[in-house]
Specification:
mainly alpha, MetI-like fold, 11 helices, elongated
Amino acid sequence: MSFLKSTLRNRSFMIGASFAALFIGAALLSYLWTPFDVTKLDIPHKLRKPNAVHWFGTDHFGRDIFSMIMVGARTSIAVAVVAVGIGIILGVPLGLTAAARKDSLLDEVIMRTNDLVFAFPALLIAIMITAVFGPSAINAIIAIGIFNIPVFARMTRGAALSLWTRDFVLSARVAGKTAPRISIEHILPNILNLLIVQGSIQFSLGILAEAGLSYVGLGAQPPLPSWGRMLAESQTMISFAPHLAIFPGIAIVFTVLGLNLMGDGLRDLLDPRLRQARK
């Protein structure tokens, strides 16, 4: 109950969660209903400004922008969730293993490989993947996921190293527990709060990365709507149809802002030292 009260009093978390819930709700609703079919062209009604029928107007093919933003939210969120999941599933075990085998050859191999991957941004990884397999949402997920692996591996190793010298870990080693068991039973639960916060931050960065990849044509492909591609298609018409860029831009800004605020609030809620410092 005290945690729930703290959550409700945390303004950053509540504002961020409200923004995130709005767009996640729109994405889920798009599976069941959208005001208009986003794959249906309506050329006679193209480039209509926002009105009572088309709340956000229509694009150069007459498609309803509000419906496209709803479906685009589904695309962005799905890509970000899976990409962050890849980073967590592969990066966290690598970080725990490296911390458990500190200063060993295995630690050096894991961390130097992570440094090598981390040197390549998601866009460059996506270019290399699409050069072989072609552009698609799946390849965008793979590119962003690969970029997330060293992020979680480095963070996990750094957090775990500080725990391996603690008394409760030393006691577990004296009791005869193996390093993998200690990592799972004692280290992982104590860094879970950091992983949750980092996950929310990487989730927002994943949405930005997906929008960026779609903007340059390496993400989701037509007819699947994407916020980044909507921005790319609007750039030649922004002088006489600015609504084509304004609404997907607002969607990206508020979704990323909401997730960052939620991550900041989670950090305060899950870290008792920050909580005490702000009192």
